[in-house]
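Here is one chain, start to finish.
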Amino acid sequence: MSTGGERTPEAWQAALTRFVQVIPHTQALGLEVVEAAPPRVTMRLPWHDDLLGDSQRGLVHGGVLSMLLDTLCGSAVLCGLPEPEVCPTLDLRVDHYRPALAGHDLHGEAWVVRISESVVFTEGRVWQQPERIVARGIGNFVRLGPRNTPPGFAAALFGEE
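Its structure:
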């Protein structure tokens, strides 16, 4: 499987950092790209009270985990293709293994499992403590192809405009 074109992991990390910085909610939440090793991406979502879904029990909202997995898997798609193209989420399944607890950063990684002509298949996981997964996601992304990807998309992603 060809992944990430000829660009370095450092170039991909910078590009994906640009990507999460243009999405208002990931920017506001401080999502950080820790590593990009195409077709695998690792990110960290720093803890803050806005992530709470149940303040009485100190539990992270499930939507936060879904957002993180969608962003992780979508980022893996970008660097998992030979050349970046627009690939909206087709579907995302989230399996919640245990509650995510207040006061702890969320860490996650995602990777490309398979690429077909029309769909990119991904998997991801989120944890707060190593080896103790909070949630797993299976994301499928529809390939719109070069014809439906705006001209200059890759250049903008890599800050080459």
